[in-house]
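Format notes (please read before filing issues)

Several people have asked whether sequences and structure tokens are stored in separate files. They are not. Every record keeps both together, in the order shown below: the sequence lines, then the token lines. Line labels are part of the format and must not be stripped during preprocessing.
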Amino acid sequence: CFAWFRQALYHVPSTSRPGWADQPDMALETLKHIKDVNAHLLADVPQRGSYPRDKYLPLAADEEVMAAKAALRKEEDGEKARRKAAAEAAGEAWDPSTFTSNLP
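Then the structure lines:
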């Protein structure tokens, strides 16, 4: 373990354990290997909530998730506007609580 620790390109002070050090280059490589080997198992782990702008996601994946959420939000806003216009055309007030959002 210590020999592997010394192989890291650089060490930084740990943000979670005072007096310890982290080696981000080795950590990312290790996490990537764990993900590659166990992806089929990790995919089955249920997630609680959503994690937008996750600092561990590659930027491209994060941007893709945020773009998908923005598209869904725009679609839902359009649906709300259509329902409100239909209610107003019928001379009724639209109740926003009747709309169920699919946003995570």
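For reference, the curators noted about this record: The CA atoms of residues 12 and 43 lie 31 Å apart. The longest helix spans residues 59-89.
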